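Model it.
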Amino acid sequence: MTTTPDLTNARWRKALRSESAQGCVEVAFLPGGLVAVRDSKDPLKAAHIYSVAAWTAFLDHLRGLVPAEDSRIVVTITDDSVLLSDRQAQAPEHSYTHREWLFFLDGVLKREPQLCAAA
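Modeled.
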Protein backbone atom coordinates (compact mmCIF):
# COMPACT_ATOMS: atom_id res chain seq x y z
CA MET A 1 0.00 0.00 0.00
CA THR A 2 1.36 3.40 -0.99
CA THR A 3 0.70 6.37 1.23
CA THR A 4 0.57 9.90 -0.05
CA PRO A 5 3.22 12.07 1.58
CA ASP A 6 2.14 15.11 3.57
CA LEU A 7 2.66 18.15 1.34
CA THR A 8 1.58 20.73 3.92
CA ASN A 9 5.08 22.12 4.38
CA ALA A 10 6.42 21.31 0.93
CA ARG A 11 8.65 23.99 -0.53
CA TRP A 12 7.42 24.37 -4.09
CA ARG A 13 9.90 25.60 -6.68
CA LYS A 14 9.67 26.54 -10.33
CA ALA A 15 11.90 27.52 -13.22
CA LEU A 16 13.38 31.01 -13.04
CA ARG A 17 11.55 32.17 -16.18
CA SER A 18 8.28 30.99 -14.59
CA GLU A 19 8.57 33.43 -11.69
CA SER A 20 6.37 36.03 -13.36
CA ALA A 21 4.00 33.52 -14.99
CA GLN A 22 0.57 32.83 -13.53
CA GLY A 23 0.86 29.08 -13.99
CA CYS A 24 3.79 26.76 -14.06
CA VAL A 25 5.23 23.35 -13.35
CA GLU A 26 6.10 23.29 -9.65
CA VAL A 27 8.45 20.80 -8.02
CA ALA A 28 8.97 19.98 -4.34
CA PHE A 29 11.72 17.73 -2.99
CA LEU A 30 10.39 15.70 -0.08
CA PRO A 31 11.92 13.61 2.69
CA GLY A 32 12.56 9.99 1.83
CA GLY A 33 13.91 10.67 -1.65
CA LEU A 34 10.61 11.72 -3.20
CA VAL A 35 9.70 14.48 -5.65
CA ALA A 36 6.22 16.02 -5.93
CA VAL A 37 5.07 17.74 -9.13
CA ARG A 38 1.99 19.92 -9.50
CA ASP A 39 0.42 22.67 -11.59
CA SER A 40 0.50 26.01 -9.79
CA LYS A 41 -2.81 26.98 -11.44
CA ASP A 42 -4.51 24.11 -9.62
CA PRO A 43 -2.61 23.51 -6.34
CA LEU A 44 -5.50 21.54 -4.82
CA LYS A 45 -5.28 18.90 -7.54
CA ALA A 46 -3.33 15.84 -6.44
CA ALA A 47 0.39 16.20 -7.01
CA HIS A 48 2.27 13.48 -8.83
CA ILE A 49 4.80 11.77 -6.56
CA TYR A 50 7.98 10.21 -7.94
CA SER A 51 11.23 8.84 -6.62
CA VAL A 52 14.28 11.03 -7.21
CA ALA A 53 15.49 8.34 -9.66
CA ALA A 54 12.26 8.54 -11.70
CA TRP A 55 12.43 12.35 -11.71
CA THR A 56 16.07 12.27 -12.81
CA ALA A 57 15.23 9.83 -15.64
CA PHE A 58 12.47 12.22 -16.76
CA LEU A 59 14.83 15.20 -16.78
CA ASP A 60 17.38 13.12 -18.70
CA HIS A 61 14.68 12.26 -21.24
CA LEU A 62 13.83 15.96 -21.68
CA ARG A 63 17.54 16.65 -22.25
CA GLY A 64 17.64 13.96 -24.94
CA LEU A 65 19.88 11.65 -22.94
CA VAL A 66 17.48 8.70 -22.61
CA PRO A 67 14.52 7.52 -24.69
CA ALA A 68 10.95 8.33 -23.67
CA GLU A 69 10.35 4.67 -22.79
CA ASP A 70 12.88 4.99 -19.96
CA SER A 71 10.80 7.69 -18.27
CA ARG A 72 7.88 6.93 -15.98
CA ILE A 73 6.55 10.42 -16.71
CA VAL A 74 4.79 10.86 -20.04
CA VAL A 75 4.63 14.17 -21.91
CA THR A 76 1.83 14.60 -24.45
CA ILE A 77 1.86 17.76 -26.54
CA THR A 78 -1.43 18.81 -28.12
CA ASP A 79 -2.45 21.88 -30.08
CA ASP A 80 -3.76 23.47 -26.88
CA SER A 81 -1.63 22.18 -24.04
CA VAL A 82 1.11 19.96 -22.68
CA LEU A 83 -0.05 17.09 -20.50
CA LEU A 84 2.00 15.25 -17.89
CA SER A 85 0.85 11.82 -16.86
CA ASP A 86 2.27 8.90 -14.91
CA ARG A 87 2.73 5.47 -16.55
CA GLN A 88 2.50 3.70 -13.20
CA ALA A 89 -0.18 5.55 -11.24
CA GLN A 90 -3.82 6.41 -11.74
CA ALA A 91 -3.22 10.09 -11.11
CA PRO A 92 -5.01 12.89 -12.96
CA GLU A 93 -3.03 14.49 -15.76
CA HIS A 94 -1.52 17.88 -15.19
CA SER A 95 -2.14 20.34 -18.02
CA TYR A 96 0.14 23.24 -18.87
CA THR A 97 0.07 25.91 -21.54
CA HIS A 98 2.81 25.76 -24.13
CA ARG A 99 4.35 28.87 -22.59
CA GLU A 100 4.40 27.33 -19.10
CA TRP A 101 6.00 24.19 -20.51
CA LEU A 102 8.66 26.14 -22.41
CA PHE A 103 9.63 28.03 -19.26
CA PHE A 104 9.95 24.73 -17.37
CA LEU A 105 11.89 23.10 -20.20
CA ASP A 106 14.25 26.08 -20.31
CA GLY A 107 14.98 25.56 -16.61
CA VAL A 108 15.56 21.84 -17.13
CA LEU A 109 17.94 22.44 -20.02
CA LYS A 110 19.84 25.04 -17.98
CA ARG A 111 19.94 22.54 -15.07
CA GLU A 112 18.45 25.01 -12.62
CA PRO A 113 19.07 23.45 -9.18
CA GLN A 114 15.55 24.14 -7.89
CA LEU A 115 14.20 21.73 -10.56
CA CYS A 116 16.96 19.16 -10.55
CA ALA A 117 17.95 18.50 -6.95
CA ALA A 118 17.02 19.31 -3.41
CA ALA A 119 18.51 22.77 -3.08
